[in-house]
């Protein structure tokens, strides 16, 4: 414990003994003192005062090392890292001579009880004695480095607002009526945003390819033919899935840097009357999922990712708060403009002509840049980029979406410029 914590505990114990002497508290002094310490130490103010005095910016830059469950609870309330020490602790409650008198098995059992108490209190680390503390510090530093905030300029996952990530911190049961109600509001809001209530939204707890495959197998009858329009790796993936699912299909290949040739598609459809649709594949019962979510009042068929759904609920709220599609689209378009214009000045060009380029994700010619080295340099500065694995030529991709802003794009361009100059 810190010096302040030790003094504070002693004062509370003295106060408890005085109360006992005046018959205000009934029972043994030690029990009353421990109870009061537990209640008062759970508040975070003493730790926060220490952080302020030492000029420490945030509680996750501090460690609360304690020898009682109350210490751990105090640290958790303050949002510090918490470490429970077993040997010599008040929680163990044994003197050196008492420890020496125990058999190894008895001591092991007593230590197990202390470990369980620390764990229940929420300790991040539990150590046998303080000699292990330096290893804990090293591991915390590793985790802090691993969790350094970064801007994800990738097709996915994306940089997410804190409020969305924070929404995942609550656990829910999938059968709970409150949770099912949240699920229903999410589906209804997505339908309104994307389809003006003309369709139904069916949530699938998997990747984008997972959803696409489910739609192909469920919405295209076995006796109908599919036409795949292939203009990159995702199109090739569709063919692989269709082949594995033994679908009846045809495909047309297109240059990935240009729009699909509509006339070629129209000609193909005119020439082959068996073709009913244009899509992708896998076997998941989409209708059963729909039935569960709607007739079941928001109940998934199987276990759903409850924390992720809560995040999605918050993400939709954030979307509305920003101003919906007009505001978000304007921000993404400005992100794209700042990014492409800035990189053009550095001699880095998009491989797609401006008139065909979307503002969501942009693929750039890598030129003579070494991607692993560029990636490492940008990661050091807090930016994560994506390799251009979808093209035959060396490229890299940058996403313009998520919780990123024009100022982030300007900072990225500046960082890439410095990297080029330093090579």
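Sequence proposed for the structure above (423 residues):
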């Amino acid at each position: 414990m810190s010096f302040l914590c030790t003094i504070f505990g002693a004062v509370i114990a003295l106060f408890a003994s005085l109360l006992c002497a005046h018959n205000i508290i009934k029972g043994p002094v030690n029990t009353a003192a421990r109870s009061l310490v537990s209640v008062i130490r759970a508040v975070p103010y003493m730790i926060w005062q220490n952080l302020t005095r030492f000029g420490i910016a945030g509680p996750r830059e501090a460690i609360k090392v304690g020898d009682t469950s109350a210490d751990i609870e105090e640290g958790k309330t303050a949002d510090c890292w918490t470490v429970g020490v077993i040997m010599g602790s008040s929680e163990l409650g044994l003197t050196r001579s008492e420890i020496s008198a125990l058999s190894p098995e008895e001591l092991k059992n007593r230590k197990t009880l202390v470990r369980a108490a620390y764990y229940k209190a929420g300790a991040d680390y539990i150590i046998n004695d303080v000699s292990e503390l330096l290893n804990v510090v090293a591991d915390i530093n590793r985790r802090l480095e691993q969790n350094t905030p970064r801007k994800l300029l990738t097709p996915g996952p994306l940089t997410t607002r804190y409020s969305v990530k924070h929404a995942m911190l609550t656990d829910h049961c999938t059968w709970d009526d409150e949770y099912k109600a949240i699920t229903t509001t999410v589906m209804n809001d997505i339908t309104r945003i994307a389809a003006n209530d003309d369709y139904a939204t069916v949530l699938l707890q998997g990747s984008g390819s997972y959803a696409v495959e489910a739609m192909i197998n469920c919405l295209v009858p076995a006796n109908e033919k599919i036409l795949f329009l292939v203009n990159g790796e995702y199109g090739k993936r569709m063919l692989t899935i269709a082949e594995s699912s033994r679908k009846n299909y045809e495909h047309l290949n297109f240059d990935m840097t240009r729009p699909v040739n509509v006339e070629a598609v129209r000609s193909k459809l005119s020439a082959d009357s068996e073709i009913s649709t244009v899509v992708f594949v896998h076997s998941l019962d989409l209708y059963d999922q729909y039935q569960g979510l709607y007739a079941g009042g928001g109940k998934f068929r199987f276990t759903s990712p409850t924390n992720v759904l809560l995040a999605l609920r918050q993400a939709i709220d954030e979307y509305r708060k920003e101003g919906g599609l007009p505001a978000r689209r304007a921000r993404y378009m400005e992100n794209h403009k700042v990014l492409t214009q800035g990189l053009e000045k550095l001699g880095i060009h998009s491989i797609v002509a401006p008139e065909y380029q979307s503002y969501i994700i942009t693929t750039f010619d890598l030129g003579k840049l070494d991607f692993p080295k560029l990636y490492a340099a940008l990661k050091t500065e807090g930016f994560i980029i994506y390799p251009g694995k979808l093209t035959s030529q060396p490229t890299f991709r940058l996403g313009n979406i998520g919780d990123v802003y024009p100022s982030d794009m300007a900072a990225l361009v500046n960082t890439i410029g410095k990297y080029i100059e330093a090579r």
